[in-house]
Amino acid sequence: MSLQRACATTEVEPAAATQVTLTDGAGKQILVCVARDSDGTWHAIGDTCSHARVSLSEGDVFDHEIECWKHGSSFDLFTGKPNSLPAVKPVPVFALEISGADVLVDVDHTI
Ligand code: FES
């Protein structure tokens, strides 16, 4: 697979996130959290918290982390690693590019 359009750049403000559904090369649907950190830098991580099956995009973004709304683990948007308990496993980080007004994500390319 390759880069797919995830959303428009106007859809996510700095320190915010949204959930999108993309399809990987095997035809499987992947929930992706497209987020901008406090500096406005774009990120794409797996949207399902590694602790339980809730959406990270519904959490709060601060600095370069997103906080799971359910139990409070914060995930680094650059690495996908949890910085606080109870989550201990990372979430995937996907390749992302901005092309004009579009946000493109490659769910087959984790970084
Ligand atoms: S469900 Fe995310 S920290 Fe528990």
Residue-averaged pLDDT, rounded? 97
Radius of gyration: 13 Å
Low-confidence stretches: none
Give the helix/strand class.
mainly beta
- Please tell me what the overall shape is: globular
Task: Encode the helix/strand succession as letters.
Answer: EEEEEEEEE
Largest sheet: spatial strand order: 1-9-8
Q: Please estimate the helix content.
A: under 10%
Total beta-strand segments: 9
Biggest sheet layout: 3 strands, antiparallel
> How much strand?
over 45%
Tally of separate helices = 0
- Ligand inventory: FE2/S2 (inorganic) cluster
| Distance linking N and C termini | 15 Å
Mind explaining what this structure looks like?
This protein has strands spanning 4-8, 16-23, 29-36, 42-46, 60-62, 65-67, 74-76, 94-99, 102-110. It contains no helices and nine strands. With 111 residues, it is mostly beta strands. The strands form three sheets. The chain has a three-stranded antiparallel sheet with strand order 1-9-8, with no helix packed on it. Strands 2-3-4 form a three-stranded antiparallel sheet, with no helix packed on it. A hairpin with a 5-residue loop joins strand 3 and strand 4. The protein starts with a strand and ends with a strand. FE2/S2 (inorganic) cluster is lined by residues 49, 51-52, 54, 68, 70-71, 73, 86-87.
